Amino acid sequence: MKLGLETESYHLFFQQGVMDIFSFISKTSELGLDGVEINIIPDVGLHPVFGVLSSDSPEYLAKVRKTIEAYGLYCEIDTRFTSHESVTKAVEIASALGADVIRTYMFRRGEYNPQRYPEIIAQLKAQVPLLSKKRIRLAIENHEDETADEIINIVKSVDSEWVGAHCDIGNGMMAWEEPVDTVRKLAPYAYSTHFKDHIVTRNGEELVVCGVPVGEGSIDIDTCFKTLVDESSLTRINIETCFPYASRFSRPKGTTNTLKGTFTVKPAPFDELKIKPLEYYYPAKISEAVLQELMEAQERCVQVSVQALKNLRKKYC
């Protein structure tokens, strides 16, 4: 099983301009990993169209691809939405970079609307000829709102070898879904992954799901990893350590709503007098000192998480 790293794992470094795609590729190799997953979604401090990439010019993308290949790494792409424009842009970039899998998700946070599923299914079916032509698979992620069953229904409705699932082992928690259940359901349909760890904590009085280094949270990472090895056709697992990060629950009720086991409430990873969990993702808004503290924590998180995944691979592969 190959292991890759998603650029989101260093989101603070990209936001602050202290890391670009070339230094990220080099860092991934330095960590002893096998591939990169490149997020092309715009954000603070990133390109307004291409995310962690600086351009879609043929010359620039050729340089990125050459760097990836020089380190002997695989490449996957992360984008969002299912519109013709979004998918076509991602396919063009993926093709230029030699990526054979694209992760996407259906809804912006707060815009979850299952009544749009027929429209989304039609959009995905319309993209199949392009995906087939370019030999690139599209993986639909459970992105904090959807349950595994909803993703499976989408994949089955599209009914194409070029459209499958993206199994994020932690995102189902926001819909009150047990991670082991998420993974067991999505594994047979999975074309790509995000491997991470989470806890439930409080932002003031509000319960939130919070990213932590892999192995330091509440997710049964052993069972999740072994399930991906045994019950999927995957040959790669991507590390996406969403830390520092926290997200609200997307549903009042889901497959469970008890604060036990995986959903046991635990202390927040940082002093709430300095920064609250829902402020973690953009700590520069709080202070320079807090930003530096969280950047140091993010670097540690990547190091710890990479070692945890290597240990799991040694144990189960």
TrEMBL record:
<dbReference type="InterPro" id="IPR050312">
    <property type="entry name" value="IolE/XylAMocC-like"/>
</dbReference>
<keyword id="KW-0413">Isomerase</keyword>
<dbReference type="InterPro" id="IPR013022">
    <property type="entry name" value="Xyl_isomerase-like_TIM-brl"/>
</dbReference>
<protein>
    <submittedName>
        <fullName>Sugar phosphate isomerase/epimerase</fullName>
    </submittedName>
</protein>
<dbReference type="InterPro" id="IPR036237">
    <property type="entry name" value="Xyl_isomerase-like_sf"/>
</dbReference>
<dbReference type="Pfam" id="PF01261">
    <property type="entry name" value="AP_endonuc_2"/>
</dbReference>
<feature type="domain" description="Xylose isomerase-like TIM barrel">
    <location>
        <begin position="27"/>
        <end position="231"/>
    </location>
</feature>
<dbReference type="GO" id="GO:0016853">
    <property type="term" value="F:isomerase activity"/>
</dbReference>
